[in-house]
Amino acid sequence: MNNIQKRLREVFIQSKKTEREGNVHVFLQNIKITKKLVRANLFSTALGMYEIEINGEKAGNTMLAPGYTYYPHRVLYQTTDVTRLLNEGKNSLTAYLAQGWYCGWFTCHKKYKIYGDAPKIAWVLELEYEDGTRQEKVSDDSAREEVSPYSYAGLYNGEEYFADKEIHDTSVLMAEDAEKYTCHNYEGGIPAEIVPAECNVRVQEHMPIREVYKYKDKTILDFGQNFAGIVEIHPEKLTDETVVIRHGEILNEDGSLYTENLRSAKAEIIYHAGNSKKVYRPRFTYMGFRYIEITGTAYYDGLVESYAVYSDMKRTGYFNCDHVLVQKLYENQVWGQKSNYVGIPTDCPQRDEREGYTGDAHVFARTGSYNFDTRLFWKQFMRDMELGQKDNTEGYIGGTVPATEPGGIGKISMLGWGNAVTLIPEMLYQQYGEEGTLIRQYESMKLFVEAEIRKMGRRNLWLGISLGDWLTYGKSVSYLMMHNNPVSNAFVIHDLDVIAETAGMMEKQEEQERYRQQAERSRRAYIRKYIRPNGKAAADDQAAYIMALQFVLKDGPLKKKVFRKFIKNVKKQGMQTGFFTTQHILPLLADAGEAKLAYDLLLQEDCPGWMYQIRQGATTTWERWDALQPDGKVQEEKMGAGNMVSFNHYAFGSVGAFYYQYILGIKPLKPGYQEISIHPYPDRRLGKVSGSYHSAAGEISVAWEYRDDQVYFHIQTPVNTRITLPNGEVHETREGKYEYLSDINERDV
Q1: pTM higher than 0.90, yes or no?
Q2: 588-599 pLDDT, tens digit each
């Protein structure tokens, strides 16, 4: 523990006021600078959600700080250079403290005060002067609590803000005779880990308004894109109005805002303008929306501006093609990631949920790692997974991380979700080549795998109720639960394979052999129970075929038989996949020599299919294949089944990996792309195609286009690469740029 972490632990403060849901506390502290200042660093954190201003200007550019972690064990802190914000003489520090995930209303189960009874905040301001002396200003009882301009702030419901209560002249408000509350030095429990945040949430790109129109006395704004973000209010022309902004993903048939799928989340901003002319920006909430509804004032150009909000990650992948719908799907899955990588990998950004679902997380993880450099994002998440797991006596990992039931989290019936403990580290190792990722998570993986082994017992299979291939088109939830075992046990076998490989990497030979043998016993038991000798899978179910081919079967005659039955099934039934199997169906078909069939599924415009969603106006991928009916109306019966109709869910966006790995053909031959395979699967229907991925080894780019009956390729690679062309030619190359003209195997066209 460094000195800053120790100091932050010692200086937490909280309000003396009675805590009620939605409170936002405002603390002010005087800072006097008497000498020439050369450097000032602010270290700050909270059990709750905070924002700090110095002399009225925000310190740093982090939103929703310090970020959501498993608070019983861990909290993040931010470091901000605030030198330019301080002046010689009198200065003021204003700290806004909300409840956030720590003790505000959170989860679809309407939990309140999950981790604590009231929010707390801590800061250390280090001042360094020109003469070499140093000074420290910390959160303590010299900070006074002021009247808050917020009557409410919450993640789901939004904010209500009274601009006339804004703090404008802090020198007056901090006068000795002002009637104020002093704060309270907090002396209760503090998480053992207070660590630097490495992947903060930021306010990102500006989202332009595409269309403005009236619905009765309401103004509807269409941003043309479903996204997670905030709406600023610019009150230059407002006086005493109360502006209400409601957010929604789609419109009703009559043009009004549709909000039924938000469930209990109000998703609104209530802004009481007074005489303020200061721009209002939400601090303690964000919304998932494409449309907003404005009431309470006459709309004018410039009244509102909107911005996307997501974690700070470097963009690494790009794709372009001539096929408008295929290109739109690529852009949709990128926006799905932006909308749901908000501190944690959420399920959706709009309704009363926005939790870190582990199943959704691992399903999209590989696609996400092509789009963006996600190493730091996952490092934070995996640490919270590990800490939450330690609070479960069985070693299970629950459906959401951070855990929202301290001391009782994790259900083995969430197989397919908790398996993120192996799937994400394995993906990170393959994508970035960092052995430390697997090694760091080994004990966590081991704890979970041992729980699976205990559950299997002598049967060498896990048998029980689980959710199966979640939200498979045409299958009821009860069917998926009762037919989950081929899916669940494939995950278990994969867990055993991964941990055996990791044990070998760590030279733990005894553990490696134990897990390898258990994997083989479970593999044999799986084949006996779920695969017939002729290759037919249990219930001729598409999920059973896909999971067996992806995780269970080794190369050999049986796998070939299963492939043939799988292809026959797909040709007969079309695509029948859910959250877990969608990412695998197109790659498996391409690998089996059925690239045309894979492209047929990608391009089909009937439901279920990605192009169906786009034809219905989707700008992100949906939670359900059939969220909208062909007539554009919401599937109301699905609303009745848990009201689960999100239009911004990234699970089915996992098809993005197919773009990089098969359309462009970019895969690692060795972890971290130290050696590369480039094996594109061209299809004439896409037109010209180009794309790139900035790997851990450097920039990889691929472009191809049809020239009569041949395909022209332009490839750039940073390291030794195996290039496989459609005519079967294989070229072993080094770093450089290469051009090829290849004939086409018509089966793959």
Answers
A1: yes
A2: 999 999 999 999
